[in-house]
Design goal:
heterodimer; B: 19 helices
């Protein structure tokens, strides 16, 4: 297993370099970023001086190779807007996004599993129809629209939840300030409700359908029929025989879901003025703050790669037929 | 039944309890909250380049003189200014007893240090002060004459140097020599009425009052990029002032009973420019707009008040040129909307309608997402111009990456839509866009000698009355034969809670010093 993990991590370096190259070229394709860092009345000389100060006067390949060289030394460069180490800024915003993503994921899972099971064991009934329809609606609603509607209803009209902002929990926790972290916790959760629902609705809908279809497939299997014929209680059949096997596709999706949600919170973070990595990257892209975008992209890509690896490892534990060298036993 | 409702009641109790414990408390009377649309990136005065960023910094740092809401110069850290006979040395006399937030005495040496530090190329500052102010005034050096008098040396006489220097934020030498550039960017030690209490990047900036002026002990600047979220926060009573209200939400705010919208005619000049360069003269339609008679005819083709009313939700008076109304030539009357006259003048200029009903083909370019309702305004202008017979190919472009480079190269057009920032404190500041034919901001390449020959006379005269006569003469040339199709001064929309009294300024400066509770 150790060799497998090392091999996967080495492969991930190539993936990360590819990701940095694509994002670098994509940002450069948008034109010369110098103009975003000078006043509208700046003269040609001032623009040129700024271009040199920011390093955009060098050929593209030189800029990129210089960046990769610095990266190899662990230097992600300085943010052009903030004039501070880019990775520090990204890491500073990461805890807020992890809070939001985890909250949304837990919310989605807590509801998706019972709803999926409910729909599966009541296949063809009104329960099944309602849950399936709701799932389709949940997958169809854009998260930003959902966010704005919730702001209007829960934030403005019935004033039950805060409209925007956040209260940090993980950040003081990481800093070792446990008293502040736990005193913040109720307010953290309170601020997470609306953006969490906006982010998690799509996952909830998708996972509900996934649990339902996966469970329906398992419930048709011979071993389930055998268990029933042995007179085992239906609840026990469902939990111990059917659900355990229905987990496999769900675990795969859920593992990747975290990475998917991390990358997908950009719009919701903007709508709710939530100071996470998504909003930071959105602003950085607009401002063509290339080092900041690169640092964020590398961090997100790394998290995604690690989650993929983790899912593979968990899969082996759940399904003894799967082997890490690629084949099935 | 009871068992089924218990979880729901528990959840409701929990949520209500949390809402009471957390965010639903009324705002404190000693705190004012301002919602901004753009993030803050730095507190390093040499690096500040956005108005939102400058608005916050303005409360942390003092300036030698500052600008009042109507553009008047108001003494702040200094009380007197003397300008040398050759106009190249500005000597400011500071108030006694000034200090920075760390308690260090603020003297002439600190002011000189501030100016020289911003200009120091080793610091590689790219903000508005080194990039625009210093280059515009031709800053050369600053030196203390004694504890209270500091001399600023500029390369040549410049009638707007005094006003531009109000943009320079002053700090103390010892504090900034101790800090690295990184530290200075996030831990400002200022000389203004408020000090930085906390900065949560991407979320909020909290300032605490350390001295007068200011009616609130704390100012919280919250970063809320989404316009509808800002509006919701204002109506919910969580924010007292919001900037950049979109016109579609004006009615909602005004009908909320908790806030209202203040609309002010801003200083940004909106216009359709005619690119008169040789390159553009060779393009289809580029030859037609070389003729001042054609340009004048097109002034009558666009119904500007209707555009303001329908698309910007405000009543506006059409601009007569590039100078803000209070400093404009009072004898100039805004062009009326008269498409028949426009058509007749185009006929007379030698551009009658052809068989297909059009007079000439021309391309118009515009950036999108930069100005209030810009796309719809541009579409309306195109329709008006087509109504008098122009055949227009409209190119709407992404602002930052596509349109801005064209702007810097002065190569958009032949017709282009643009807004450029102006001021209230001097007509010459507004006219500086077109100080030289080659000015980077003369996007039109206009070269009328009646304007440019008078520029040195206007700048060099000592007689203010004579200067005013020259200005009016030049503005008349610009009005009659200039390179702009005059539109309007962009309105700025601010949402203001009924909890406070505050008056929006025209110059995009959001200053909280005078705000107070009702």
């Amino acid at each position: 297993m150790g060799a497998y993990i090392v091999r996967r991590l080495l492969q991930s370096i190539i993936v990360i370099i590819g990701v940095t190259l694509v994002s670098f070229l994509a940002l450069q394709a948008g034109g010369d970023p110098t103009y975003l860092f000078v006043s509208e009345r700046a003269s040609t000389e001032e623009i040129e001086a700024t271009r040199q100060a920011l390093g955009f006067d060098r050929p593209l390949h030189e800029q990129y190779l210089s960046f990769v060289g610095d990266l190899a030394r662990g230097d992600f460069g300085q943010s052009l807007s903030y004039r501070q180490p880019a990775m520090e800024i990204v890491l500073d915003a990461l805890p807020a996004t992890i809070e939001l993503t985890l909250f949304a994921m837990i919310l989605a899972l807590m509801l998706a599993i019972p709803l999926g099971v409910l729909a599966a064991i009541n296949r063809g009934t009104a329960w099944d129809g309602s849950i399936t329809t709701m799932s389709m609606v949940g997958q169809s609603i854009p998260s930003f629209w959902m966010g704005i509607m919730m702001i209007l209803f829960f934030g403005l009209y019935i004033r039950l939840f805060p409209i925007s902002g956040n209260v940090p929990f993980l950040k003081p926790l990481i800093a070792g300030d446990f008293a502040v972290a736990f005193s913040n916790l109720p307010r953290t959760l309170y601020h997470l409700v609306l953006p969490g629902i906006a982010v998690g609705t799509y996952s909830l809908a998708r996972n509900t359908r996934l649990v339902r279809s996966s469970l329906l497939e398992v419930l048709e299997q011979d071993y389930v029929r055998t268990a029933r014929s042995k007179g085992i209680a239906e609840f026990r059949v469902l939990v111990h025989h059917a659900l355990r096997n229905a987990w496999l596709p769900v675990v795969t999706i859920v593992g990747l879901e975290f990475g998917f949600l991390l990358g997908g919170v950009v719009v919701v973070e903007t709508v709710f003025s939530y100071p996470g990595i998504g909003r930071l990257l959105f602003a950085a892209i607009n401002q063509r703050d290339i080092p900041l975008v690169q640092a964020g992209v590398i961090l997100l890509a790394s998290i995604f790669i690690l989650l993929n690896l983790l899912v593979d490892l968990v899969y082996v534990r759940l399904d003894p037929r799967v082997k890490l060298d690629g084949g099935r036993g | 039944m009871k068992r089924h409702t218990a979880p729901i009641r528990a959840l409701a109790t929990c949520v209500l309890g949390m809402s009471l414990l957390t965010g639903c408390a009324e705002q404190s009377d000693d705190t004012i909250v301002v919602g901004l649309s753009a993030d803050i990136t730095t507190f390093e005065p040499g690096m500040i380049s956005s108005r939102d960023n400058a608005n916050i910094a303005r409360h942390i740092f003092g300036a030698l003189f500052t600008l009042g809401p109507d553009g008047e110069h108001i003494p702040e850290l200094a009380h007197t200014l003397e300008i040398s006979d050759d106009g190249m040395a500005y000597v400011y006399t500071l108030n006694q007893g000034l200090t920075c937030h760390d308690g260090e005495a603020l003297t002439a040496e600190d002011v000189a240090y501030t100016f020289n530090r911003i200009a120091d190329p080793a610091n590689r500052f790219t903000g508005n002060t080194p990039g625009f102010v210093f280059s515009s005034i031709g800053f050369e050096s600053a030196e203390p004459l004694d504890d209270l008098r500091v001399q600023i040396n500029i390369a040549q006489k410049n009638p707007i140097a005094f006003g531009l220097m109000t943009e320079v934020y002053v700090y103390c030498k010892d504090a900034y020599e101790r800090m690295s550039l990184d530290e200075a960017a996030s831990n400002p030690i200022g000389s203004g009425a408020y000090r930085l209490a906390s900065w949560t990047r991407g979320s909020e900036v909290v300032l605490e009052k350390v001295r007068e002026p200011g009616n609130f002990e704390r100012i919280v600047w919250r970063i809320i990029p989404e316009a509808s979220t800002r509006t919701a926060e204002l109506i919910a009573g969580n924010v007292d002032i919001i900037a950049n209200v979109v016109p579609e939400q004006v009615e909602t705010i005004n009908e909320s009973g908790r806030a209202s919208v203040q609309v002010v005619s801003g200083t940004r000049r909106m216009y359709v420019g005619y690119n008169l360069s040789a390159e553009h003269a060779a393009m289809p339609g580029g030859d037609a707009i070389q003729d001042p008679d054609v340009r004048r005819a097109l002034q009558y083709a666009v119904d500007v008040p209707t555009i303001c009313r329908q698309l910007l939700s405000v009543e506006c008076e059409r601009a007569t040129g590039l100078v803000n109304p209070q400093n404009a030539n009072p004898n100039l009357i805004p062009y009326s909307y008269d498409p028949e006259l426009a058509g007749r003048l185009l006929d007379e200029a030698g551009w009658p309608r052809g068989d297909d009903g059009t007079r000439f083909f021309i391309r118009m370019q515009a950036g999108q997402g930069r100005y209030v309702n810009d796309v719809n305004v541009v579409l309306a202008i195109v329709q008006y111009l087509e109504d008098v017979g122009l055949d227009i190919e409209l190119e709407l472009m992404e602002w930052a990456s596509v349109y801005t480079p064209l702007l810097r190269e002065r190569s958009m057009g032949p017709l282009f839509f643009l807004g450029t920032g102006g001021g209230l404190w001097s007509p010459i500041y507004d006219m500086t866009d077109i100080a030289r034919v080659s000015s980077g901001t003369n996007y039109t390449h206009w070269s009328d000698s009646r304007w440019f020959d008078r520029w040195p006379d206007m700048v060099n005269t000592e007689d203010l009355d004579e200067q005013r006569v020259i200005i009016d003469e030049m503005l008349e040339v610009f009005y009659d034969d200039g390179p702009w199709l005059h539109l309007y001064f962009q309105p700025d929309f601010y949402g203001v809670s009924d909890r406070i009294t505050w008056t929006a300024r025209r110059d995009e400066h959001v200053e909280i010093f005078e705000a107070s509770l009702r």
